[in-house]
Structures are given as C-alpha cells and as structure tokens.
Amino acid sequence: MGEKGLLLVISGPSGTGKGTVVRALQRANSSLRLSISATTRLPRDGEVDGVDYYFMERDIFKKMIEEGQLLEWAKVYGNYYGTPSHFVRDALERGNDIILEIDIQGALQVKEKLPEAVLVFIAPPSKTELQTRLLGRKSDSREEIEKRLKCMTGEMKLAGGYDYIVVNDSINRALDNIHAIIMAEKCRTWRQQSIIEQLSQPGS
Amino acid sequence: MGEKGLLLVISGPSGTGKGTVVRALQRANSSLRLSISATTRLPRDGEVDGVDYYFMERDIFKKMIEEGQLLEWAKVYGNYYGTPSHFVRDALERGNDIILEIDIQGALQVKEKLPEAVLVFIAPPSKTELQTRLLGRKSDSREEIEKRLKCMTGEMKLAGGYDYIVVNDSINRALDNIHAIIMAEKCRTWRQQSIIEQLSQPGS
Questions:
Q1: What's the first-to-final CA gap in chain A, in angstroms?
Q2: How far apart are CA B73 and CA B81, in angstroms?
Q3: Residues A136, A115: Cα–Cα separation, whole Å
Q4: CA distance A179 to A164
Q5: CB neighbours of residue A108 within 10 Å
Q6: What is the β-pairing status of strands A32-34 and A38-39?
C-alpha cells in the first residue's frame, strides 16, 4: 500500500533565490515533481503545453474557477493563472511528492483547500542583503527595487501563515533545511496511521 | 540574541532501541544534552548525583510535585521519578537543545506543560520484529516478552498524541529522521519571529 505524497509549497519575496532553490531540489530529489500551472495567456516561443503550462481557453478556466477545480488562482495583467486541483490530488494519491512554486496569496489559498500542504517561506537573511542581490541582478531599475522591498514588508506579515521559514543565507544550507523538512514531514504522526494501526492490534 | 533551545522528548515501547538512538544522537550532536531526572530512590554503586540522577529526599520531591515544579513525574515500585522544570527551562533559555527519554505517560504530561516540546515516538517496524529483538536480548522471560508486547498494543494507542513517529527499521535511518526533525523544527515559523519582525519593518 503506497503512502500519499507530500505537497510542498514554496514562496518568498522576489530576489530570495527561490527559483534556484526549487531547481536544485528537483535535481537532488528525483521523486519531487514540479506542479504545472494552468493559464489563459498565449504560449510564448518554445513553450510547450503540459510542460511549461497547461494553456487553456478563458471560458474553460472560468468554469474551473466556478466549479472549485483550482487549488488557487489569480488574474495578472488580464490573464488567469492557477493550479488545477486534480493534477495535484492525483499525483499525491499516487504517492508522488509535488513542489508548487507560487506567490503568498496563492499559497495561503492552497493551505485552506489542502491543510496537509506544507508551506515553506524562503526569506532573505536581511533587507540589506536582499537589496544587494536585487541590485546585482541588474534586471530591475532602482524604482522597481524600492517597490520590491516595500512589497516584502507586506509579504513578511503574511509569512506567519506558513509552516516553515527557511532563511536563504547559503543555498546549500537552505537546501539542507528543506530536505530536512520533507523528511520530518513524512514522519508526522498523522502520516503514520498504518504503522500505528498495525502495532496497536491485539495479538501478533 | 540567542535562540531558544529545542526540547526533544523520545519514547517508545521496550525493545525498539530508543536507548541506542538517544546515545547515538548525543554522540553525533554535541549541542544536544540529556535531561537528568530526579528520584527519591537511593543511588546505586557508581551512580553520581547530578550526573545519573538528582537524588532527592522524599519530602523535597513531594513539595516539588505540590508546587508544580516538575514537568512530569511518576511513582514506580514505591520510588518517585520526575523531571524538574527549572533545569529544562533554564537550559532551553540558554539555547541548549535537550533530549528527554521518558515513558509515554510522562511525555504527554510534558507536552501539556510545554506545548513547544517535540514528541518523537520510536516504533518497531512490526510486532514480529519486536518479538525477535526481545527474544534476542535474552534478558526477559517468554512471559515478560508477552507482557511487553501486550503493553505495546496500549502504548500505540497513545502514540497519536506524539508529533512524529520514527520507525526504527535501521538505526541509521532512524537517526537521519530524528536529525531531520530537529533541523525542521528549528525552521518552524513560530521560532523565526525575529527574522519576520526584522524583515517586516518598513524602511531598511
């Protein structure tokens, strides 16, 4: 009898390196699968349906919202993005572990629908360090960076709804912590019902 | 500013190897300290006060019970055994991690007084395996072994009050799991309040 998989939801402010963390987790752990989002935006060059996204018609997406078929969704610049429940639930039932890299509002929506989801918030070691990293990327203007830092102030207030905070001061330490979280969560008592039942039966 | 230590409470049925696990944890992790119990029984040859036990007069022990100064206590064959709160609380405040190896009733008493205690239940992989191990120790009679197995049936029903169940099918795997639990627990959101506060302050 297979055990149910684990749903690991990873979020964090822009510039905390969560993309790097997620890619490294996938490389290190072949049983972890990245959840694929659905979107109503058009595919960009090279993007493949079912790999990068599930590309969907707007009315189909809206019907999924109405029918509660999405674990979370948001409208960004006129396009819809979301996580179809059944892909995630099926994979978990099959015993696969799933990573979902989504924003904080989305993560909290997921926790409401699937309380067993494990929410990990990747935090920068400090504001100054985050600022340095954002400046180093050279992809954002000063103004944009200021906006991101201000945004983080609000995001951190929502971090209290997460199960774990992993400070990304070194990528290896952050990965060690997340691997430990995955291992520990698999030992949680509610996941060990079959061994409890087996051992609490009278007689051998 | 130092972080508060972690209180790891380890229990498990007789024969699951929890003693071996606790000794190996201490060897591998120099910051983990074993909590010392208080008892009213007389010291045996070679036992040192403050190392093996805190040996106490009966009326002092009873006063500690009355004044709620024990995290847990029990009377076994006419002697009292218990865990003085202030040793544990002081060590945790100083940032030391503490292991407490106690029975299930004691562990559940601790959880009530210190909800942040992390309760780990060491379980055998199966009843047959536990029976084989108990027979292999050659220290117990058949009757004693039967009693222990029966006892486990009841103990497993209380295991639901634990945070984690670690199946000791291999000592190394059990240790890896407990190390992961310690690491993960240190990332718990409630333990990361200082970084949340620091990052959620407006301005840099």
A1: 20
A2: 6
A3: 37
A4: 12
A5: 17
A6: unpaired
Q: A200 and B157 in contact by Cβ < 8 A?
A: yes
Flag whether B166 is in a domain: yes
How far is B34 from A114, CA to CA, in rounded Å? 38
* C-beta atoms of A189 and B149 within 8 A: no
Give the helix/strand (H/E) hosting A165.
strand A164-167
The amino acid sitting at B174 is A
Query: Which helix H or strand E contains B164, and what residues bound it?
Result: strand B164-167
pLDDT, tens only, A119-148: 999 999 988 888 888 888 877 788 888 888
Judge whether B191 lies within some domain: yes
In eight-state DSSP terms, residue B36 is: P
CATH number where A144 lies? 3.40.50.300
How many other C-beta atoms lie within 10 A of the C-beta of residue B6? Answer: 23
Percent of residues, chain A, with pLDDT higher than 70: 98
Residue A179 belongs to a domain: yes
Q: Which of A156, A187, A196 sits opposite B199 (nearest CB)?
A: A156
CB contact under 8 A, A180 and B180: yes
Residues of A in contact with B151 (CB under 8 A): none
Q: What pLDDT digit, counting tens, does each position of A66-88 carry?
A: 999 999 999 988 999 999 999 99
Angle at B157 between CA B79 and CA A196, to 5 degrees: 125
Q: Which residues of A touch B (CB under 8 A)?
A: 120-121, 123-124, 126-128, 131, 149-150, 152-154, 156-157, 159-160, 162-167, 176-177, 179-181, 183-185, 187-189, 192, 195-196, 198-202, 204
User: Domain residues for B153?
Assistant: 7-35+95-200
Three-class SS state of A98: strand
